[in-house]
Amino acid sequence: MKRLMALATAAALALGQTAAAQTADELYEAAKDEGEVTWYVSQFSTGLAEELGQMFSEKYPGIAVNVIRATGQVIYARLAQDVRAGVAQADVFSGTDLGHLHELRDQGMLMEFTPPDADSVRAPYKDMQPGFWYATTANPTVMAYNTDQVSAEEAPQNWTDLTDPKWKGKVAVTHPGFSGGAGSWAVLMKKLYGSDFFTGLRDNDPYIGRSLIDPPTVIAAGERAVGIAVFSVAARNKLSGNPIEIIYPTDGSKLSLGGTAVLSNAPHPNAAQLFVNFIIGEEASARMVENGMLPISAAVEPPAGVRSLEDIPTAELSEEELVEGVQPIIEEWRDTFGG
Prior knowledge:
D-Maltodextrin-Binding Protein, domain 2
């Protein structure tokens, strides 16, 4: 990807590199002339992304949102294709792999700016604002089990429990080659338990989805009994009354942060900044909570019946470990599981 970024022209890299602080009203006035914003997104389901786009357009009439949604690795590859072709299509990029955002920043592909409402986010997110992107999801990768098939006493308590032969044919996971969140989770598993974790998991014949949305969905449907789960989907299923319960692993959940940035060559830079400000705001957070997600805005409380971010134990994974570990773990996964 770094080689692809180098193909972008110096002019494209410099365009909009630094944006002066503006109020939301000022951004809206400027954005009216732009009329649209194109959003490359992997953090939300297609349905929720479309809803957020519609909410934005209702709040800011005259600005349409073009939603291009795919899994983390796929949407990044789409952006790489744009760069290679010299096409400036995306205005806003919402990724699930912070390594992608680091690389985009290092290649001069991100605009440095401050959303008008940056100070209104909850305390944990204020430390996640490097100026080139802003935390728009904090979605821990936890575990889950189907309560019709597994009792609380039988349920796994830590990650290595998923390699127990008693779960053969009953485990659901996600392929790190398609999902940015699954990639960072796999890096953590390699750090904690080495390659033996993956061979043990393979021997249990797991269901392997392409998105972190897939495992909790098949667990709630009863197609698998246990597995990894993105917090938001497990919580949404639980709050909807489906037979699923969240497990907060004793050895630490993988905190998958999703960041949202404006591309430095964004065709609609004012609409893009306004859109990022909307995503970190109260209305978007309220809709996220309805979908089982943890809120960004300090004005919105977390979903009822689940832990807040501050109460979920997480395992440490440094920025360097994340950035350098994803591609090797994708290759190891393919060598171990095939495909």
